[in-house]
Task: inverse folding
């Protein structure tokens, strides 16, 4: 089972939730079910030509849009991910957490991989054994 299937199966009780709104922009997709969920529009509008059922998503069941996660269409995947994010339960009390502080302590002498380039990565140089950055628009030393 992949990560999407695990996440989807954890939300079975919310499958029948209706979509009350869906908006697709050049950079972001928003889906409203129980709350709002966002995802990035992965191709930044370069290849988006339309999608079947455009204008008719209101009232669809969440599980219909979650199925989009299993396609190879980046627009549909974005809609599915925004739907997933709109259903995920967030604890009422969240603890403040900084991943870079955590990695300063736990990442000593380890190989750390990031998807995307973040400013605070520089803090980890000299702590981590190796830092690998996979970036869409690579800088020096990124992949």
Result:
């Amino acid at each position: 089972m992949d990560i999407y299937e695990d996440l989807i199966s954890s939300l079975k009780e919310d499958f029948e939730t209706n979509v009350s709104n869906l908006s697709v922009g050049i950079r972001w997709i928003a889906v409203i079910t129980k709350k709002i969920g966002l995802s990035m529009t992965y191709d930044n509008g370069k290849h988006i030509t339309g999608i079947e059922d455009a204008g008719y998503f209101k009232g669809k069941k969440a599980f219909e849009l979650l199925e989009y996660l299993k396609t190879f269409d980046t627009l549909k995947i974005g809609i599915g991910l925004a739907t997933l994010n709109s259903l995920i339960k967030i604890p009422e009390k969240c603890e403040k957490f900084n991943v870079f502080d955590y990695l300063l302590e736990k990442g000593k002498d380890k190989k750390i991989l990031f998807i995307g380039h973040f400013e605070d990565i520089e803090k980890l140089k000299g702590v981590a054994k190796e830092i690998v950055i996979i970036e869409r628009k690579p800088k020096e030393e990124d992949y």
Summary: The mean pLDDT is 85.
